[in-house]
Amino acid sequence: MSDADFMQLALAQAREAATVGEVPVGAVLVRRGQVIATGRNAPIDGHDPTAHAEIVALRAAAQVLGNYRLDDCELYVTLEPCAMCSGAMLHARLKRVVFGAPDPKTGAAGSVVNLFAQPRLNHQTEWQGGVLADECAALLQDFFRQRRADQRAEARQAHPLREDALRTPEAAFVDLPGFPWPPHYLSDLPALAGLRLHYLDEGTSTGLARTDQLTYLCLHGNPAWSYLYRKMIPLFLQAGHRVLAPDLIGFGKSDKPKKDSFHSFSRHRQVLLELVERLDLKSIVLVVQDWGGLLGLTLPMAAPGRYQGLLVMNTTLATGDVPLSAGFLAWREMCAKNPEFDVARLFARGNPQMNADECQAYNAPFPDQGHRAALRAFPALVPELEDADGAAISRQAREFLRERWAGQTLMAVGAQDPVLGLPVMRALQADIRGCGEPMVLAQAGHFVQEHGQAIAERALRFFRA
C-alpha cells in the first residue's frame, strides 16, 4: 500500500471523530506494511487534553507490541502534529511520520517549529507532509464551517430576533479601535419583551467580588453607545473594580425596533431597573451623560441601598416644570430637519482629537435608515411639559436627590458643550445633595467621555468603597 492509501485510512478515522463532535483528525500506525493501531481525536470524549489522534495510536501500538519503543513503525496522520505529539513520536523512536494538511497555528513539523529537524536530539524521526493535503484540509474546514453555523443558530435560538426589530450584523463591530471587550446579552427581562440587550460586563473574572470593589454602571446617551466609555473602562478595571456598560435598546449592539413609536422614557427606564435587579448590582457608582443621566438619575431612588456614588457628566433632569435649554431645543430642531445626520461627523466636529476610525465607530450600529429609529425618536422624548412621559418620575428623582441622596457625587463638565454645558450643569449641581464644585474640562464638548481618562483618574481618587 502507498502513503496515499494509508492516509485514506487515517481520513476514515478523522471522519469518525467528526461524527462524535471531535475535531476531525485521524491516525493509523503501520509496522512493516501492516496497520497495527488506529487513533482519532478524543479530548472531549475522554476528558483528556492529551488524547490527540497520534497519541491514541501510539498508545494502542505500544500495547500491541508490548513495547513503548516503536523503532520500525510509521505513523500517518491527517494533520501536522503538534509539539506534544511530535515529542511523543521522538520518545517512541518512531521511524517515520507522514501527515496531510499543515497546521499554521500549532504545527511542529515545519509550520511553527520543526522538532524533527533538531540534530541535537538523540533520535531523528523522518517526516513528510502534504499527502492528500487538500482532502485532509477540506474535512477540517467543513467541520469548523458547520460548527460556526451551529453556533450562530444557537445564538439566534437563545435570542431570536423579533419580526419588528433589526439587529446590526456583528461584522460592523469587528476591529473597532480601543474596544476589545466581549459582548454579553439578555433578552428575557420582562420590559425587553424578547428584544436582545447588549452590555459589557468586565472585572468579574475571579467570580468573587472584593469587599472594596465598586461597580461602575456606565450609561450612554443619544446617538452614542457603550463605545463612548472605552477610555474610562480600562482605568476602572486596572483599579480592581467591575464595569458594566449596557447599550440602550435601539443603540449599539442591542436590537433596534423598526418603529420610532416603540421608544418611550418609561420603557427604557424600566429596562434599566430590571437590568440592575437581574444582575444584582451593588456598590454602584452610576456614571451618566446625556440620556444616560435623564434616565439614570431616576434609578437610585428605586433602590437606594444599591447606589454609592454618582459620576455626572453633561446631562440634566427633564422635569417638565423647568424650560429646556436653548441649546437642547436647537439640537432637537436639527434632528427633526436632518433625521439621517452623520453620527461620525457629529463626533468629529466636537472632538478634533479623535481619529477617523474612532469617529466612524459611532456609525457602526446604524448601517442604514432602518436601524436609526432610536436616533429619530429620542430628541422628542425629552420631557418638556409637566404631563409628558418621564416628567413626573424626574420630579420625584429631583426631590430624592435634593433631600435624601446620601452617596458621593462627582460632576465633570465639558465646557464646550452647547446643549448641556456648564449653565445646565450648575443648575443640576444645585439639585444634588452634597454635590461639590464640578471638574470643568475646558476643551471637552458634549461627549465629555472622549476626554474620559482624566475623569476616570479623578473618580478613582474620589470614590471609595
How far from one another are the termini?
73 Å
Mean pLDDT: 94
Helix percent band: 25-40%
- Strand numbers in spatial order across the main sheet: 7-8-10-9-12-13-14-15
String of helices and strands: HEEHHEHEEHEEEEHEEHEHEHHHHHEHEH
Number of strands: 15
Globular, elongated, flat, extended or rod-shaped: what is the shape? elongated
Contiguous runs where pLDDT drops below 50 for at least 5 residues: 205-209
Largest sheet: 8 strands, mixed
Strand content: 15-25%
Helical stretch tally: 15
Secondary-structure class: alpha/beta
Rg, please? Answer: 30 Å
Task: Note down, in words, how this protein is organized.
An 8-stranded mixed sheet has the order 7-8-10-9-12-13-14-15, with helices on both faces. A 5-stranded mixed sheet has the order 2-1-3-4-5. It is elongated. Helix 14 (422-430) links the parallel strand 14 and strand 15. The longest helix has 26 residues, at 133-158. The protein is an alpha/beta fold. The chain has 15 helices and 15 strands. Helix content is 35%, strand content 16%. The model is unreliable at 205-209 (pLDDT under 50).
